[in-house]
Amino acid sequence: EVQLVESGGDLIQPGGSLRLSCAASGFTFVTYAMSWVRQAPGKGLEWVSGISGSGTRTFYAGSVKGRFTVSRDNSKNAVYLQMTGLRGEDTAVYFCAKGSRGTVAVAAWDSWGQGTLVAVSS
Amino acid sequence: QSALTQPASVSGSPGQSITISCTGTSGDVGGYNFVSWYQQHPDRAPQLIIHDVNNRPSGVSHRFSGSKSGNTASLTISGLQAEDEAYYYCSSYTDSSTHVFGTGTGVTVL
């Protein structure tokens, strides 16, 4: 059974940094792309970032490009999201999602974690 | 990248069929067959119900089907059931090498 468990969410001041982690199990991790998707309170889904199965290719939404960095450690079955320069509009539940394929472009997100809350406020 | 456009809400009676539209551009929905649909119940994680325009993952009800014409994708739920009451989001790959979600549609079973 696929399991994705996010951690690292917190209350953080504007301008601060935070690192989210997602621990994966139940599948051959290196084979699949992974993504981070966020959902602001009462709002819709927003795709944030994706990383290929090998970790060599990364992609970002325009709203976070230059501030967020996605990475993965295939030896630990984990994917990370390093967030810097946090703003109020980054407040959201951040979901980790498993891709249906190894390439971000052609992947759909077929398993999701329960999310971790990031709140940016002074 | 702007969100794909979905109707805010759609409703139907049990047993009826409803269709949710998802309108994008030639740079996303119209340009790629990488359109997927997700169902999200309140306070739950999203669940993939359609991928690659019209393919159902294993375990997803046959009552869900997808299609695409030009820059608009559609999700049809046939034989509407109470358990289908949820939010539905479309998503597409884009020519900016990103993914984009739709604005979301709340489905109400009357």
What does this structure look like?
The complex is a heterodimer of chains A (122) and B (110). Chain A is an all-beta fold and 122 residues long. Helices cover 0% and strands 49% of the residues of chain A. In chain A, the strands form two sheets. In chain A, strands 2, 4, 5, 6, 9, 10 and 11 form a seven-stranded mixed sheet that branches. In chain A, a hairpin with a 5-residue loop joins β4 and β5 (45-51). The mean pLDDT of chain A is 96. Chain B has strands at 9-12, 18-23, 35-40, 47-50, 64-69, 72-77, 86-93, 99-101, 105-109. In chain B, the strands form two sheets. In chain B, strands 1, 3, 4, 7, 8 and 9 form a six-stranded mixed sheet that branches. Chain B has a three-stranded antiparallel sheet with strand order 2-6-5, with no helix packed on it. In chain B, β3 (35-40) and β4 form a beta hairpin. The N and C termini of chain B lie far apart (35 Å). At the A-B interface, β5 and β10 of A face β3, β7 and β8 of B.
Classify the secondary structure makeup of chain A into a structural class. Answer: mainly beta
Note the main sheet of chain B. 6 strands, mixed
Q: Which ranges of chain B are low-confidence, i.e. pLDDT below 50, for 5 or more consecutive residues?
A: none
pLDDT under 50 segments of chain A (min length 5)?
Answer: none
Percent helix of chain B, as a range, is: under 10%
Indicate the overall shape of chain A: globular
Average per-residue pLDDT of chain A, rounded, comes to 96
How many DSSP helices of chain B?
0
The main β sheet of chain A shows up as:
7 strands, mixed
State the separation between the terminal residues of chain B, measured CA to CA. 35 Å
